[in-house]
Design brief:
By secondary structure, the chain is an alpha/beta fold. The chain is 44% helix and 14% strand. The chain has 15 helices and ten strands. A six-stranded parallel sheet has the order 1-8-5-4-2-3. Strands 6-7 form a two-stranded antiparallel sheet. Strands 9-10 form a two-stranded antiparallel sheet. It starts with a strand and ends with a helix.
Length: 413
């Protein structure tokens, strides 16, 4: 698998323009969702190549990362004359980079892609590493391929337009990267005051400082993933480390998709209604009034209606990490004091995902579909310590259900 280039940009328009000028392609396509079309695409439309590009737009939200919307992308590429010499830019969050990447991987057996992530989740995880795919049959990322983009352009300015729920969603993946890496990477993340990101009041100097801090944290997180992917691009060995928190986390997501039951708005956001949750002020929304500022990408829109939208991926991973740290403690001797430290942090910032014992069998069934499984055995990635990863860990059903109990008891439901 070809090695992708990841660029933490200082001037997106200039650097993207230069990169496009260095390539040869017969047609350029841009894939957005409804939100990034409105809020992000205008920032790039001064680039000559972008002006001539064909726009493909899909509905926002991970519930639309499905075969129907993928077929729509294929159809547009086909009817607009895309060929193997064409180029597809995926401008959006993880849903767009996942589905757009898979469209690129499969259309005419492969056209080149570029990812421009607009959410923290996509910047540190979905857009990096070459995994592409769609949800299918009620299961997360059930159909997909390994297909790295030519380049990933990460502009932390986009992150300043996100709501609190989406910052937290991406931040969970950064915590995961740190846990599988080292205490040196973890400590700054746990020390960073996330509440500074949730404030609507920032001076230009404060915004510059926040952007610099975020760029550093994002760069370190991306470096962890890049290092692992370079060692094991097709997930035959150590790349499975990146699935820490995901075996149970994906089960929580699948349960949420099935029931269309959202994450509870407790703890960090219980006092804020969906309309009140702050959106950070950044260059992607400078031209919009405070009442017009959109929440970017489908993930962000999932917090708009607590009755209609499922759990955000990162929130599910945060919950999954607590369960899998418990399994790590019981199975691999992960230190209890470090488990308590991470549990305290997750409880401080992340609302709980509610389920009860009646959901246990369904959750367990979802875990049996995990892509890391072999021979019908559920394989976990667990930790003996921070940075001490143990892949292919078989855990009894009894212990798995104990971890579900531990999470519920820790959050008091």
């Amino acid at each position: 698998m070809a090695r992708q280039q990841v660029v933490i940009v200082k001037d997106l328009k200039t650097e993207l323009s230069d990169f496009l000028a260095s390539l040869t392609f017969n047609k350029l396509f841009i894939l957005t969702d409804e939100n990034t079309k409105r809020a992000c695409l205008p920032l790039l439309q001064d680039i000559p190549a972008i002006k001539e590009a064909t726009l493909i737009t899909v509905e926002a939200g991970d519930t639309h990362k499905d075969i129907e919307h993928l077929a729509h992308i294929w159809m547009r590429l086909s009817t607009e004359g895309a060929s193997r010499d064409s180029l597809l830019i995926n401008l959006g969050g993880g849903m767009i980079t996942d589905m757009g990447g898979f469209a690129g991987a499969t259309f005419k057996r492969g056209i080149r892609t570029i990812n421009i992530p607009t959410t923290l989740m996509a910047s540190v995880d979905a857009a990096v590493g070459g995994k592409t795919g769609i949800n299918f049959n009620g299961l997360k990322n059930e159909i997909g391929s390994f297909y790295p983009p030519l380049c990933v352009f990460i502009d932390c300015g986009f992150l300043q337009t996100l709501d609190a729920d989406n910052i937290l969603s991406g931040y969970a993946e950064m915590i995961k990267h740190a846990l599988i890496s080292s205490e040196k990477v973890l400590a700054p993340l746990l020390q960073f005051d996330l509440n500074t990101l949730f404030s609507n009041v920032h001076t230009a100097e404060q915004l510059s400082t926040l952007n610099s801090q975020l760029s550093t944290l994002v760069s370190e997180s991306v470096a962890v993933k890049e290092n692992i992917v370079e060692q094991d691009p097709k997930e035959k060995g150590i790349r499975k480390a990146l699935n820490f928190g995901h075996t149970i986390g994906h089960a929580f997501e699948s349960l949420s998709f099935t029931r269309q039951r959202p994450i509870l708005h407790g703890h960090a956001s219980e006092s804020l209604s969906s309309a009140q949750r702050p959106i950070l002020h950044g260059h992607a929304s400078e031209s919009l009034s405070s009442t017009q500022r959109p929440i970017l990408h489908g993930h962000a829109s999932e917090s708009l209606s607590s009755a209609q939208h499922p759990i955000l991926h990162g929130h599910a991973v945060a919950a999954g990490m607590i369960c899998e740290l418990y399994l790590s403690h019981k199975t691999c001797g992960f230190p209890s004091e470090k488990l308590s430290r991470i549990l305290y942090y997750i409880k401080e910032y992340y609302p709980p995902f509610a389920y009860d014992c009646k959901d246990y069998e369904r959750l367990y069934e979802y875990m049996t579909h995990d892509k890391k499984n072999e021979g019908g055995i559920i394989n976990f990635t667990l930790l003996a310590n921070i940075g001490d990863v143990r892949i292919n860990q078989e855990v009894s059903k009894e212990k798995i259900l104990e971890s579900l109990d531990f999470y519920r008891e820790s959050f008091g439901f």
